[in-house]
Every structure is written in C-alpha cells, then in structure tokens.
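Handout, section B. The chain below has 383 residues.
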Amino acid sequence: MRDVAVIGIGQTPVAEHWDKSLKELAGEAVIAAMRDAGREYADGMFMGNMMSGSANHQQHLGAYIADWVGLRFTEAAKIESACSSGAASFRAAFIAVASGEMDCAIAAAVEKMTDSTSDEITTQLATAADADYEAGMGLSFVALNALIMQRYMHEYGWGKEHFAPFPINAHANAAHNPNARFQEPINLATYEKAGMICPPINLMDASPMGDGAAALVLVPLDSVSSTAKRIRIIGSAGATDSIAIHHRKEPLFLQAAYLSSQKAYKMAGITPSEIDFFELHDAFSIMSALSLEASGFAERGQGPRMAVEGEIFPGGRLPVSTRGGLKARGHPVGATGLYQLVEVVQQLRGEAGKNQLDRARIGMAQNIGGSGSNIITHILQAI
C-alpha cells in the first residue's frame, strides 16, 4: 500500500444554516478543501451522511454534490455509517488512494439537521439503534446513554460531578473556534444547574445538533513536495459491535473502539503513549470516559479520573476536544468524523490559533457510530 497524505481541508461553521441548502453547505466545504489543496479535479469523492433521505428528502448524494461542485463525471458515492459516516468516508478515500486505485480522492460529509423538528431528528437518530429491541421499545439515544452512564456510576462509584470536566474543557476550547456552535465557556455551576434530559444526563452532558459540512483531500504522500502542507495518515482502522447494547458481553466497554484503536496503533507502529492529542467522540460525557478507556489511555472505570485530574485539558497528558469537540463545536451527525479530522490536521499544521497545542506531532481521531456499534480510528502525523 502507498503512504497517503492530507493536502487540503475545508469546513463550514456548525450552525443553523437556514439560508443554505444541503448541496450549498456541502459544496462550501468541498470547494474550500480543493482550493486549500490547489486541486481542481479528483478521481473520486466519498460523501458521508446519515439522514439526508429523511431530513432533507434527498438521497444519491455522490452524484448530487459532485455535479454541484464541478466534478461531474467523477466517481462518487454516499457513505452511511450512522454517526461514524464522516470517518467512514475518510477511510474509503484513504483505501482508494493507498491501494493505487485513485491518485486524488475527496472525503466529504454533510448533515443538515435544522430542516427537521427536534422530535423528527430524535426519531431519525434512533434508526442507528436496534429497531426491534431498542428503538421499537421507545429508547432514544439519550435514554440509551443515560442507562449506560447510570450503570457506569453504579459499578465504579463515580458521582455525576466527576463528569463535569469533559464539557467544561470542550466549551473552553470552543470559545476560540470560529466554526463552533457554542463559543462561550462554562463552569461547574453551569454544569450543575443545567436542565436534566434523562437522568443522569443533563444538557451539558449532551452534544447539540446542527448543520455543517467538512472535507479533506487525500493524495499519495510521494506525489507532493516536502514543502507542501501535507499531513501523513499513519493509522486507519474500523471495527463493529452489536447494535443493541444488551447483546454485548460488556456493555460498559467499547470493544469496537478497542479493536479499531489497536489496529490503528499497529499500523502506525506506535503505542497510546505516543499520541499527543485525541479528538474523541464526546456525543455524551459518558462516551468520553469509555473512549479513553477502550483506546488504552485509562484503566477500565477510571476514565473520569483523567478529566478530574486535568489530564484532558490543554497542557495535560492527553488534550481532548481541542477545538470544542462534539459537545461545543457541535455534532452534525454524519459530518462529525470529518470535523474531527480537519481539526487534527489544523493542530498538526500549527493552524489552530489560540487552541494550538505546544506538542502536536501525532494526533488521533475516533468517530463512533450508534452507541458503539461502528467505531473508526485514524492517526495522523506531522511531517
């Protein structure tokens, strides 16, 4: 396989884009990435998205967006993997270039959620759960994560306040991200006073919906000069688990995160201790803790300790959500995985502004589909 580099990135602010259509939103990110890469054409485009058919009444996004951005006749397809659709599109583009099938591939993703009511979005999100035994029983994704968090607190003895540092860190970082949904910091009092959604999950434990699009341009590493803005992809892997949580042997352990991260570490030839920062999938505070544990950064049941002891903050052992994460940057579901990767590239390029980390040589992004049923991990390195 060939070594692959990212040479272009693009993103839109995560917001309520009432004045833009689905294709306009996607087009902005794709065109920005192509301009950043200095490219006018690509051999293929993989478009990540979860709910365009139901939320926007538009499927067939590959051809739809390719035509809109001036790539008519380019090979293109929609990639759907629930909340991990963005990372799935990136992995498809990576494989296409690494295999030699394509010399330039675009990974893009878009989600336009504000065209639907919150009740409709809740119903659509539930389609990533088991239709017979979870969604069919009235369980929303908030409810599923609340059950996991309740059991986790019971098993390991953590209090609700111990999860507060996760959103506090995310909001502090988002304050300096012009593309973030929320750009105001919060404190412990804000967290404790937040309205309860589904105990023990409150508003500050849950990521907000929004509209957004992001894109990256991938090419063979040896096709670009050493002076170009290029970031090498050194690890890429995915894994699945049962969609229904009750079918898992260990409901409090993200086995798919463990498997995908281990495969990515092996491919990269590194250990978890060599990761400088981690863009984790903090759709809910409990997922942050579980991701840290499954990816080898914390012992089982000790994920919150990293937050409480400040290890996840800028300057800590493993900074996470360095541009706000899903919690504060926003979670435009199918596009989230590519926002994470764009932010990793920004850090590795030294383009993260006030969010720039002092130590940013190897970064990892992990995108979770469903409640842990499809998890994709990528590791990128500055050259």
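Note. The chain has a mean pLDDT of 96. Compare this with the example in section A.
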